[in-house]
C-alpha cells in the first residue's frame, strides 16, 4: 500500500534541522521554549518602553546555560560552536536585544577573560558571569572610532605599579548595568585590555536614549576620568588588536546564527498572517504576489540557515577563518533585513505595531547590520580574501 508522503515543514522546507545532532536539537528546543515563555509575551512592551530587565533575566539565562556556553570550565558548559549557534538563533528569534545581551556577556566579556585573563581573574569573574550573578560588557568602540579601532584615543599609562585610564567608549551594550567592563586602551606597549569593576572612582556610565533600534537593550557611553587601576587589572595574555578582534569574531559568529532566527520569525509570522487575513473573499496567501513574497523569504531563510550550519561545522573542526565569519554576517544579516521588510508589507498596517514582531525585528536588524563590523568592512574582508588585495584605505 502506498504511503502518503510526510508534509513538508513550511518553516524549514529543506529540513536543515535534520543536519543537527540530537544534542543540538535539544538545545534549540530548550532555548526556544524559554524564549516563548519568558520573552515573547513581554518583549513588545519592553521595546515600546525602551527597557530590558537584565538583572531579572540574567540568572535565568545562567540557569539555562547559555552565558559563555561555548567556553570550558569555570561554570561554563563547553558546548560546540553549532550548539551555541542554534541557541543564538532561538534567542534572536525572540529579539536581537536578548541575543545581544547573551553575546556580549559570553562571546565578548567572558571570552576575553577566558582567553587572555590570569587564573585569578578567571576565578574571580567567570563563574559569576556564567551564572548570571554578574553582568559584563566589552568596551572597544569610541565616539569617533568604530571601524578603525587602531586609532582609539582611550589610553592607559603606568603610574608606579598602577595604571591610569582616560578616555571614553560609546555604544556599549550592558554598559551601565555591568559589574565589570572589559576596556581596551592604547598603552606604550600597544593595545591592552583592562578589567574595570563597577563603582571604580572616575568611571561613569550614561545610557543612550532616543533609540529607534535595539530598544529592549541597554546601550551606554562609558567615560574614564583618570581611573586608577591596580597592576592586576590588565589582561596579561595578549597585546595588540588581536585581543579585541578575536573576541569580536566570536560575537560575529553568534550574529550570523542569530539573524537566521529573526528572519525565520518574520517569515513564519507573515505566512501565518497571510493564511488568516481575508481580502476579496479569500486569504491573501492565495494571491500570486503574496506567494511570491513568501517564497522569496523562505528561500533566503533556508539558505542563511545552511550557511550558518556550514560555518558552525567548520568552526567545530578548527577550520573557520575570519573570512567565513564575514561571509556569514554579511549574507545573513542582509537577508534577514530584507525578509523583515517584505514581511511587514504582507501585514500591512498591522505590521507597524508591537503586536507583531516584524517591524521590531527590522528596526533591530538595522543595528545588527552595522555593529561588530559594518557590511562595508565585511565586504572588504571578503574582497581581500578572493583577490589578495587589501582595499581598506
From TrEMBL:
Cofactor(s) listed in the protein's UniProt record: FAD
Presence of keyword Transit peptide: yes
Domain Acyl-CoA oxidase/dehydrogenase middle: 137-227
Entry-linked Gene3D superfamilies: Acyl-CoA dehydrogenase/oxidase, N-terminal domain, Butyryl-CoA Dehydrogenase, subunit A, domain 2, Butyryl-CoA Dehydrogenase, subunit A, domain 3
Ranges of residues in domain Acyl-CoA dehydrogenase/oxidase C-terminal: 240-385
Keyword set, alphabetical order: FAD, Flavoprotein, Oxidoreductase, Transit peptide
Domain of life (superkingdom): Bacteria
Sequence ranges assigned to domain Acyl-CoA dehydrogenase/oxidase N-terminal in this UniProt record: 21-132
Family assignment from sequence similarity: Belongs to the acyl-CoA dehydrogenase family.
Protein name as catalogued: Acyl-CoA dehydrogenase family protein
Organism: Kitasatospora kazusensis
